[in-house]
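Cross-posted from the bioinformatics board.
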Amino acid sequence: MAILIKKPADVQPSEITPKSVYMDRRRFMKNSLLTGALLAADAMFPAWAKRWPKLPASPYNTDEKLTSFEDVTTYNNFYEFGTGKRDPHKQAKDFNPRPWSITVEGECNKPGTFDLDDIIKPAQLQEYIYRLRCVEGWSMVVPWVGFSLADMLKRFEPTGNAKYVEFTTLLDPSRMPGQKRRVLRWPYREGLRIDEAMNALPIMAVGLYGEILPNQNGAPIRLVVPWKYGFKSIKSIVKIRFTETQPVTTWNQTAPNEYGFYSNVNPHVDHPRWSQKKERRIGEPFWKPKRDTLMFNGYGEHVAHLYAGMDLKKYF
Ligand SMILES: Nc1nc2c(c(=O)[nH]1)N[C@H]1C(S)=C(S)[C@@H](COP(=O)(O)O)O[C@H]1N2
Ligand SMILES: [Mo]
């Protein structure tokens, strides 16, 4: 067997890592004190280990008490794996989320189909401790592992006609048994206005509690939009489409008088069948009083300007 050994000077970085990854990493290394951890992230990537390495913290993190790993991973909404809160962690056990590719299309200059490993840039991963507030009245505080949605979308170079972004979940009833029942019109779809999507808060999550994202929480990649009701945070995404017109979204299509396109957390706009003024933090004892729902789930200073001049009772 002939072994060809190149002198280090002959080896171009482009032979080792795709150029974009290399450039990103170099840029980041210049300003980061966390180089060690990030190189570790790169080294393990894309060999899917069970845990992500220790990551830098997002500047937007809440310091509230975390909801337990147990509660975050056993009390879920994921209709592709059953309509009960205790269904997904059981029914999604055998779901294999790899390999995984995401198709990007519509109003952008760089559409294409990308492997998950090309979508995730390890140097951009952070830990985001965000509240998730379900429209049903419960909330959680979750330490997500993820990266900025805006940073990812910019790479596809949306055109001036891209006014909205649409996200679509995998459609495969053989792997997602809940799709054999017509409880929703599959595949699950969600959307954001482009300025909402380009805000600094929304993330693509690929993990939680330092672990690779559990299947029941939307493996391998899901959206987290912390100022909107939980159903906007679509799971197991396979398609991203830039559009000029407002996309059709699953819950709005199912019950338009109950679930608006915007769905910002808002204590002043009740769901037609129940109040949104209070919320129950999962894991707290039953005798503890419910908490007040916060406008925009407490993220108003970062997002209220997006809705200046809009009647949020009309655009709920
Ligand atoms: N594809 C898909 N995404 C989904 C859902 C779903 O049923 N299917 N449920 C939504 C709802 S209603 C909520 S509250 C959150 C729950 O996320 P969690 O299970 O990670 O807490 O996921 C959202 N994303
Ligand atoms: Mo929800």
